[in-house]
Specification:
Ubiquitin Ligase Nedd4, Chain: W
């Protein structure tokens, strides 16, 4: 069962979550965010010896945070 399916019967409110810049549907009980813009993306784990490649996000949400290469 998906996270959204578990929250179907709970009240959602529209608000801008912390660290975001768009209004989203947020569960009033627990803060779960229902992203209404599903996109197909791919990510990778690039390794070399004992190191993992990370990228710093240049866009919102979570601009400046470290992440795996994806798009």
């Amino acid at each position: 069962m998906s996270d959204f399916e578990q929250h179907k019967r709970r009240p959602f409110v529209r608000e801008i979550p912390e660290g975001d810049d768009r209004e989203r549907r947020v569960c009033a009980d627990c803060g779960f965010i229902d992203y209404e813009n599903p996109k197909i993306v791919v990510g990778s784990v690039a390794t070399w010896e004992d190191k993992i490649l990370l990228c710093r996000r240049a866009i919102h949400p979570r601009m400046g945070y470290w992440t795996l290469p994806a798009g």
